[in-house]
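Subject: Sanity check before I submit

Could someone independently write out the structure tokens for this chain? I want to compare against mine line by line before I put it in a report. The sequence has 316 residues.
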Amino acid sequence: MSTPRDRDGFDDDEAGRGWQEPAHLSGDEPADQPNFADRRKQPRDSDHTAEGASWQPPGWDLPAATPDRGAGVDPSWTPPATPPAAPPATGAPERTGGLFGGRRRQRDPEMTRAFTYEGDQLGAQSWALQHGWTISDGSGPEDADLTELMAGSPVRPGKEARAAAVLRGRAGAVDLVAFDVVYPWGKQWVAKYAITAAPLLGAVPGMRLSPARLWKHRTGGLVPLPSGNEAFDSRWQLLVAEDGPQVRRLVQDPAVQGLLLGSDDGDEFWTRAEDRRGGMAGGYVAAVRPDGHRPQLIEHHARLLTAIVGALAAGY
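---
Independent answer below. Compare away.
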């Protein structure tokens, strides 16, 4: 066991009189071997080139600041094109919600243009003019019936909805009226639904024909009437206010079943009866789809409504 009095090889006695400084620190080194402290004052050989210049990585030096420095630039190089400036925002600022009334922000002109209802000037209306149909904005006296027709639709349009871009014409042997259901969006109107309707004479049964996958709204008093065709009943459902030969002819009609089974199940149909002037009964059978009118949709609705009107009028 060692004690504080044990010698550790450095002391000759307890007072340490026998200790000497190492040779490389005392300066008593041979002449041909420099002192360590002196070596620290001299740069390392690896930090200098053979010519004595300081070493630097390749490409470190900047080009000399001479007037002809640009002479080495590739003449085929052209500066990148400046991106076009964003178009200035137009329209009145839009107020956002907030605890103290919110703040106003500038409305994006592209977003405004995308949601602006323009009536499909080069689409459905152009198609209508080419086929001899008439066009109205939905505010004329002949459009008064459309409000009631729209109110009874399965999509429940609401009080803010109105009819717009009304097209009237004939498809084969059936008269049709097609219009968009539009809603206010700021100071503009946005089309949300497309409705096409065909007038009916005589008794108009209360009914709704919808894809089986859709949730049914406001079906009070309507009962399902199966067709007997399992493939058809798995995709479509007819709800009627009263069973009878007229609605049975409709749900069992091969032409109607074939057209509906060949569709994408995206339309709903309903009827609306009304008392016309002179006491003659009548009404409409209509189709609705969550879309704006376009030529393909008008022709699609025309085929379906022609078959439905033919089935309902077969017993007259």
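---
OP: Matches mine. For the report I'm noting this point. The longest helix spans residues 295-312.
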